[in-house]
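2024-03-11 09:14:02 INFO queue: dequeued item SURF1-like protein, len=264
2024-03-11 09:14:02 INFO validating residues
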Amino acid sequence: MYRFLLSRQWVILTLVALLLIPTMIRLGFWQMHRYEERTARNQLVSDALHATPVPVERMTSPGHTVSRDERYRRVTATGTFDTAHEVVVRRRVNSDEEVGFHVLTPLVLTDGKVLMVNRGWIPADGPSQTAFPKIPAPPAGKVTVTGRLMPDETTAASGIKNLQGLPDRQIMLINSEREAERLGAEVLGGYIAQTAPEPKGDTPEPIGTPGDEDAALNYAYAIQWWLFAAGVPVGWFVLVRRERRDRAAAAVAQDRREEAPAPV
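2024-03-11 09:14:37 INFO prediction written
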């Protein structure tokens, strides 16, 4: 009654089932790996955001590349804002997905080095975004700011193309090396997203805190793939039983037709 398993149809079906099981198991392990990565990233961000702020000079220096472990670290810096060399970063959105600019202002530290400070988001004056927008001035004189340390932006990491021929004092990516060339000064690696002091009138709009990645979703996907893998042999066995039952019923019906008396 199980000879049908050697038919072309059932051989193909069995091979497909045997291929699906390890594939689904591997996909489950891949999702679990993603779950562990995201959990570790969330913990790293949480630790950085809740750590006691330290002087920015302890975390970065001219030419320094901000590492993954240093990202979002809370730092403080004391200096004077250089609004004459302020620029805006194009095509940035706020929490409401409105397109505007990020305001990037050099902060000249007490030792003469420069820290690039992202003071927040402002709306664009019009759809063309060619004119330099009106920007609320930062506090005058010496000021101490607090912010989250961020790495230099790149096209590979952000997906933003570094376009050429932009309007005056507008850039696409925040990069400390390019800013050092533009300013002719020693610029600390990376930049900070300012969190304090808060701007007067809520402009520029502060940049939101990075959110947690949904690691639980990857965990659920891993369990789902493993359940699918376990379900494949169960489904194959059910199909085999049904096929055997149907063939047995067909054989019994055939025997009855053959034993029935011929019509007169």
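2024-03-11 09:14:37 INFO annotate: The beta strands are 54-55, 74-81, 87-93, 99-109, 114-123, 142-150, 170-171, 191-196.
2024-03-11 09:14:38 INFO item closed
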